[in-house]
C-alpha cells in the first residue's frame, strides 16, 4: 500500500462510525490522534535504538499511519505535506533549517 492509498483509506473512513472504526474514532478526537502518533513515534525510536529492523519496520508503519490520521484530523492532507516537501526540494537541509 502506498502513502497515497493509505491517505485515501483514512479519508474514506472519516464518515464511519467511531464505535466500529479506529480511524474514525481518532479522526473524531484530534487530541487522541496526536497522542497516538506520539506513542507510535516513541516506539519507532526505541526499535531504531535497539537496531531491530523488523520491529522498526512495523513501528514505522504504525507511525506513518498515525501521522496521516493526526494530520487529517486537523485538516492537513498528504497533498499538503507533499507540496511542502516539494517547496524544500531545491534547498540544502542546513539552509532550509536556518530559514525556519
Structure description:
- This protein has a single domain (3-86), classed as MazG-like (Helix Hairpins), CATH 1.10.287.1080.
- It is 77% helix and 0% strand.
- It has helices at residues 3-12, 22-28, 30-50, 53-73, 78-88, 93-99.
- α2 packs across α4 (53-73).
- It is globular, with a radius of gyration of 15 Å.
- 21% of the residues are buried.
- The model has no long low-confidence stretch (mean pLDDT 93).
Give short descriptive properties of this protein.
100 residues; mainly alpha; Helix Hairpins; 77% helix; 0% strand; globular
Helix content: over 70%
- How many angstroms separate the termini? 32 Å
Assembly classification: single chain
| Tally of helical segments | 6
CATH superfamily membership: MazG-like
Mean pLDDT score? 93
Order of H and E elements: HHHHHH
CATH topological fold name:
Helix Hairpins
Q: What structural category characterises the helix and strand content? A: mainly alpha
Silhouette: globular
CATH class: Mainly Alpha
Q: Quickly give the CATH architecture.
A: Orthogonal Bundle
User: Which radius of gyration do the C-alpha atoms yield?
Assistant: 15 Å
Major β-sheet profile? none
The overall strand count is: 0
The stretches of 5 or more residues where confidence is low (pLDDT under 50) are: none
Q: How many discrete domains?
A: 1
The portion of residues forming beta strands comes to: under 5%
Amino acid at each position: 500500500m502506498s502513502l497515497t492509498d493509505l491517505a485515501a483509506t483514512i479519508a474514506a473512513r472519516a464518515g464511519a462510525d467511531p464505535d466500529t472504526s479506529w480511524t474514525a474514532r481518532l479522526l473524531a478526537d484530534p487530541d487522541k490522534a496526536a497522542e497516538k502518533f506520539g506513542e507510535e513515534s516513541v516506539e519507532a525510536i526505541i526499535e531504531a535504538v535497539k537496531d531491530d529492523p523488523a520491529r522498526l519496520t512495523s513501528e514505522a508503519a504504525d507511525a506513518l499511519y498515525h501521522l496521516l490520521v493526526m494530520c487529517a484530523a486537523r485538516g492537513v492532507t498528504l497533498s499538503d505535506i507533499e507540496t511542502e516537501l516539494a517547496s524544500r526540494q531545491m534547498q540544502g537541509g542546513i539552509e532550509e533549517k536556518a530559514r525556519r
